[in-house]
Amino acid sequence: MTPQDAVDLGREALLMATLVAAPVLLAGMIVGLLVGLMQALTQIQEQTVAFVPKLVAMVIALALALPWVLSQLLEYSRELISNIPQTL
Question: Per-domain residue ranges for the chain?
C-alpha cells in the first residue's frame, strides 16, 4: 500500500461520512435558522424553544433518510472489503 492509497482511502471515508451526515445536519441547520429567525422576531430567547424543534426535525430526517444512508454504507463497505486483496 502506497501513501497515495492511504490518502485516497481517507478521502473516500471522509466523503462518505459527509454524505451520510448531510441529511440530518441540513435538517437541523434549516430548522435552527427558522427558529432563530422566529426568536429574533418575537424576542423570545428561551433555549429549549430552539432545541426541541431541531431535535424533532433531525429525528424525522434520519427516519426518512435511513434507507438511503444504509444502502450507501453497505455499498461503501462492500467496495472497501472487496478491494482489500488489491491494496495489500
Answer: 23-87
